[in-house]
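ARCHIVE CARD
Drawer: 12
Card no.: 0347
Subject: one protein chain, sequence and derived structure
Cross-reference: see card 0346
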Amino acid sequence: MVSESFALGGRSPVRRLGYGTAQLTGPGYWGPRRDARDAVAVLRRAVGRGVTLVDTADNYGPSIVEELVAEALYPYAEGLLIATKGGVVRTSDRAWHVDGRPERLRAMCEASLRRLRLEAIDLYQLHRLDPAVPMAEQLGALDELRAEGKIRHIGLDSVTAEQLEEAVELTDIASVQNRFNLLDRDSEPLLKLCEARGIAFLPWFPLGNGSLTADPECARIAAARGATPGQIALAWLLHRSPVLCPTPGTGSLAHLEENLGAGAVRLTAEDMAALG
């Protein structure tokens, strides 16, 4: 039986199928994508349909999406967990600058608190490890923010299993975010480590950025199950491991409904074997 929930950090339960907000921006996660009213409607519908994990980042826009989350969802419903990320500075639609200096991480976190209208961020994720700053200093800054009550859980984005092993020796890590889907399983060693340590794995590009819909095996099983290929791809993640918590993103109400419908899809052992 597939579990519908996961206790983030061992104490914050969320529904495993969440919602990611990157698609509420323009190309390159830069600027607004559409009328803000559409984005607000999608966010409200996601939570209305039972989503309890909303994942965003300060550089989506930049800043725009955090503000949209607050506009749509504040005051936040009890049990709704807001996750955001810091550690990357955007200066254009193609420019990403990693900055893990402790003073910059603190400034980014406090700016996110203001935009999200939160006293404490439920899950604050280091968007990228800065190779120019010792990991201990980067995680130490987040530890200080947690001790001050400004964040509740710490997460990491785009790390190796070896880096996670190092990180958990320095502090408690509640989640990781790496690319993982039916066609891209390079992070399998990281997934196994997360399973062993009870760490949530939030796979980004869970639908392969659209490429999975063309997979013939996915399409065959979708037809047999009365589902769409995208729903099969998401259901595969939910069946694959109890720590996988996909947060597919969309700016479309219809696509949102399709994604969330994946939670009701049940795959057989034969389906899982066929999908690999």
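Annotation on reverse: The mean pLDDT is 96. The longest strand covers residues 151-157.
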